[in-house]
Amino acid sequence: MLAPMFAPSVLTLRVASIDTPTSLIKSFTLEAADGALLPGFEPGAHLQVEIPCATGGVPQWRSYSLIHLDPAVDPRAGVRAYRLGVRREEEGRGGSRHMHALEVGATLTVRAPVNHFPLAAPPRVLLIAGGIGITPIVSMASALAAQQRDFELHYSGRTRDALPFVEELRMLAGEKLALHADDDPATRLSIDALLDGAQVNQPIYVCGPAGMIETVLAAARKRGWHECDLHYELFTEAAPQEGDTTFEVELKSSGKRLTVAADKSLLDTLIENGVDVMYDCRAGYCGLCTTHVCGGEVQHRDTYLSDADKASGKVMQVCVSRCKSGHLVLDL
Length: 332
What we know:
Blueprint: E1 10-19, E2 25-32, E3 46-51, E4 60-65, E5 82-87, H1 95-100, E6 107-114, E7 124-130, H2 134-146, E8 150-157, H3 166-173, E9 177-181, H4 191-196, E10 204-208, H5 210-222, E11 230-234, E12 247-251, E13 257-260, H6 266-272, E14 290-295, E15 298-299, H7 307-312, E16 315-317, E17 322-323, E18 327-330
Parallel strand pairs: 7-8, 7-10, 8-9, 10-11, 12-18
Antiparallel strand pairs: 1-2, 1-6, 2-5, 3-4, 3-6, 12-13, 14-16, 14-18, 15-17
């Protein structure tokens, strides 16, 4: 199962407007400078936005889901504007801080929409979102409403005030929308209760923090859900884990050797040293950074590769996986 290697077309967009639905979240409307129609997208798709390096190094890309809230408009045919929702992460890698510092009129370089979280066509759908994880789920709810398909949308956050786009969601989903707040015992989301009341193998689409997704998937599997009916997208990037150690990576084409620090990902080390690597999710589920391994033992941490791929030791996801043997040789 190897990732398709492609480079989405690059667009230059202008920030047309900025809204602040909560104290930590900003919503950006982006348009072409000449007002041209923008490439269409499917529910669950996202843009990659180029984020300049604060120290003048190599720019990096951050992915933000596309928000579509109008069932009367089919975004697949092209749109006049893209809408993003970005939560400020003080402990993040700088992408959200850069976005939150933007002003109307600013110019962004983006890659055209891609989709690693597609919506299939089952009769009934269970949508679950946590925090800013609502952004891809919004577009799914809009598409389901437009198709007059049955769905439920459960939207959870730490507090009711922390949930953005609520009024728009109410207009879109009506009684299909259930709001949950962790600080309110009466509305706090119970995954067990939710799945106990659902039909086994009813397709589930969930997006949000890793802990929430893991809870939903574990509870569904325990109740007999098939993997093909469990769909998710993480809204967190890989973080260093206890026990991570420094290792060396050798690039087969040049013989160049790089040191990957214990607190740094292999992907970041490659990028900082000018190695051209395709990547997107940074969480090990999209498959875009699949890289062939010529030597060394891989510590797999992704959810993209099959068990057989992992056992072969011939490929790895460089965004999250590391080295067990102290030395890796990559076909780069």
